Every structure is written in C-alpha cells, then in structure tokens.
C-alpha cells in the first residue's frame, strides 16, 4: 500500500470491504503518491522497500500479492521472480488477457490517475500505441484529493470527474471510427465508480480488485 490518508471507499483496493476474503495490508511509508506516479518510474530504493513489504506479507501468510497503484506495473517481473506467489502489480497487467478475450484489434481505453505521468514503462511490457489513455487531471475533486492526500472526499463530485473522463475517452474512441470495447482502470481509486464508468462507456470495465475477487489464489 502507498502511504496515504485519503478516503478509500468500497471498491478501492485499500478498503477490506472490497473483498470477500481476508486481506493483509502493509504500508510502505516512503511510497507517497508523488514518489510512485513519476513519469520516469520509481527510484530503486523505493522499489526495494516495496519488495521488502511484499516479502513480509508472504511471510505472514499472503497467498497472492497486489499493489495499490497501477503505476507499479513495471515491478511485476521483479516481484514475480522473488516472491514465490502470484503477483498482480497493476491492473495494466490484465491487458494480455483482455486482448486475448476481445481480439488483437479491440479498442481498449485506460482510465488513469494522471495521463500526463503514465508512460509505456508503467505497463510492464504490455503497452501498445492503439491504447486510448484518459486521466483525471482535468477534474475538480478526485485528482486533487489523491495528489494532495486530502482527508475528505466529495464522492458525488469525484464520480462526476470519473464520468467526465469516461466521456472524453468515449469521444476519442468515436474519432477513431470505433467505439470502446473495454475500459481498464489503472487507478485503484477509480474502482468505487466502476458502475458509473460502465453506464457512460456502455462496455465492460475491468480493474485490479475485480481480478483479485475472481482469483482462486487470493
């Protein structure tokens, strides 16, 4: 887990009520939002601290490891190689399964915390130029709450931000001549609004929490 204090609603990976089985959490105190969501990726020292926290969770009995930020997708190979349990470092790691399910030419949209910071390196080898990426940075509530680690959240305003970002994603897909066939939520803090994303996009929505719920190893 990143070291944050902003509210984590049901559907967010940081809320244990999002799951139907026990969840173990470990905060990495130096893993602040600004330190993790960098265009150039995280520092080696922080990657080592995250790996150490994951090892501690495995030692405590965790059968599967996930992170609370999709920007950590680049750590997937490192964690897989050292932990000895299944790892889901980022929702972006779901892209191969989505492409297999929908077909190589499917139009897939990515909703991210900040599209200005998300780079191909965060995709853990799963980036392709046909992906459509839209961020929350134009919104008035959710991006600021996450970026500034505010203790209060206006859920209705946050949901509007997510809906507007989804509408922008749909507009971009229409301009390519094809509609969206799936939306993937990079940001685990968008999960509480997944139903709204489905309503606006009119297509299936996938996120890390949903994949963990379906995992027999979790």
Give a brief description.
The chain is α/β, with parallel strands linked by helices and 218 residues long. The chain is built from 8 helices and 6 strands; from the N terminus they run ααβαβαββααβαβα.
What does this structure look like?
By secondary structure, the chain is α/β, with parallel strands linked by helices. The protein has a single domain, classed as Rossmann fold, CATH 3.40.50.1860. The chain is built from 8 helices and 6 strands; from the N terminus they run ααβαβαββααβαβα. The strands form 2 sheets. It has a 4-stranded parallel β-sheet. Strands 1-2 form a two-stranded parallel sheet. α2 (44-59) runs parallel beside α3 (76-83) and α6 (155-175) packs parallel to α7.
């Amino acid at each position: 887990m990143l070291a944050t204090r902003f509210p984590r609603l049901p559907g967010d990976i940081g809320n244990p009520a999002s799951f139907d089985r026990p969840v173990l959490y470990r905060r990495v105190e130096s893993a602040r939002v600004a330190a993790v969501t960098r265009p150039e990726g995280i520092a080696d020292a922080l990657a080592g601290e995250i790996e150490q926290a994951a090892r501690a969770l495995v030692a405590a009995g965790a059968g599967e490891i996930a992170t609370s930020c999709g920007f950590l997708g680049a750590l997937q190979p490192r964690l897989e190689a050292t932990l000895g349990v299944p790892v889901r470092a980022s929702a972006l790691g779901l892209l191969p399964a989505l492409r297999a399910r929908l077909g190589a030419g499917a139009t897939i949209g990515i909703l991210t915390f900040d599209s200005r910071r998300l780079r191909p390196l965060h995709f853990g080898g799963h980036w392709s130029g046909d992906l459509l990426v839209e961020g929350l940075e134009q919104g008035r509530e959710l991006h600021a709450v996450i970026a500034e680690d505010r203790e209060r959240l206006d859920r209705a305003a946050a949901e509007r931000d997510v809906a507007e970002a989804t509408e922008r994603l749909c507009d971009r897909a229409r301009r390519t001549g094809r509609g969206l066939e799936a939306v993937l939520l990079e940001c685990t803090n968008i999960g509480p609004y997944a139903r709204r994303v489905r309503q606006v996009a009119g297509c299936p929505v996938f996120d890390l929490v949903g994949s963990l719920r379906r995992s027999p190893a979790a």
